[in-house]
Amino acid sequence: MTRSQIALVVTLPWLAAGVVLLAMTRIDGETQEAKLGLFGSAAICFSIGCLARTTLGLHDLMQASHAMAAPPPPPSGPLPSPPRTDPP
Fold first, then answer.
1. I need a surface site. Which of 20, 21, 44, 58 has the fewest CB within 10 A?
2. Residue 23's closest CA among 44, 1, 38?
3. Cα atoms found within 13 Å of the Cα of residue 77, Cβ hemisphere only
4. Residue 45 in contact with residue 20, Cβ under 8 Å?
5. d(CA 12, CA 22)
6. pLDDT exceeds cutoff 80 at 77
7. What's the chain's average pLDDT?
8. Could you tell me how far CA 49 lies from the centroid of its own chain?
9. What is the predicted pLDDT for the residue at 37?
10. Residue 72: helix, strand or coil by DSSP?
């Protein structure tokens, strides 16, 4: 997955929470229990989005710390020899 695809997947729970909250405010004639159930569903979606975003952020921090802690790779191939100086 590319970075933009991962960001989209992480954002989807927040979008779902927004849609559910919008639906909850637009419903007329429903009982208070039904509205509370929709609010609970929205809260669950929001918390899943928060968890996904936090996990992604922690992953990025770990990748950065490993990149900084890793020694540079050894040079590949033969080492260059110093330039030759021939007497005239």
1. 58
2. 38
3. 2
4. yes
5. 15
6. no
7. 80
8. 10
9. 85
10. coil
14 closest CA partner among 54, 58, 50: 50
80 token code pair: 């260059």
Count the helix, strand and coil residues of the chain and give each as a percent rounded to the nearest 5.
Answer: 70, 0, 30
The answer to whether 42 and 22 have CB atoms below 8 angstroms apart is no
Residue 54 DSSP code:
H
Q: Is the pTM of this model over 0.85?
A: no
> Given this model, what pLDDT does residue 28 score?
74
Residue in the structure block whose two tokens are 């540079």: 72
Residues 32-68 have pLDDT tens digits of 888 888 888 888 888 888 888 888 888 888 888 887 8
Element (H, E) at 19: helix 3-26
